[in-house]
Amino acid sequence: MHKIIISLSLVLSLSACSGILEKQNPVCEATANIGELPHTVQIYGVRTVANQIEYRAGYPFNWQWVNKNNFTASTCK
Predict the structure, then answer these.
(1) E strand residue ranges, 1-77
(2) CB-neighbour burial class of residue 58 (10 A; exposed 0-12, middle 13-18, buried 19+)
(3) Distance (Å, whole) CA 24 – CA 45
(4) Per-residue pLDDT tens digits for 12-69
């Protein structure tokens, strides 16, 4: 009986946590010069703030909103 309760609580806790981490797919890619070397960065969102375009950039920008001017080229529209 004890093993059934432990198994049931484990299953319930795993199923409760499954919706927390939602994987996002990149919408486009951009190239940034980091240390004078070109790096391809995946972009997860595009927005306009005060007439400036910002990209939600993945690694190495830690999924922060970054100005479009930080990139040398992109496939975003």
Answers:
(1) 28-34, 37-49, 52-57, 64-67, 73-74
(2) middle
(3) 10
(4) 666 666 555 578 899 999 999 999 899 999 999 999 999 999 999 999 999 999 999 9
Q: What are the residues facing 56 on neighbouring strands?
A: 65
Angle (CA) 71-72-77 rounded to 5° is 75
Q: What is the C-alpha R_g of the chain?
A: 20
Rounded to whole angstroms, how far apart are CA atoms 45 and 28? 8
Q: What is the pTM of this model?
A: 0.68
Q: Are 55 and 68 in contact (CB under 8 A)?
A: yes
Token readout for 23 is 């994987």
23-74: CATH number? 2.30.30
Enumerate the domain spans of the chain: 23-74
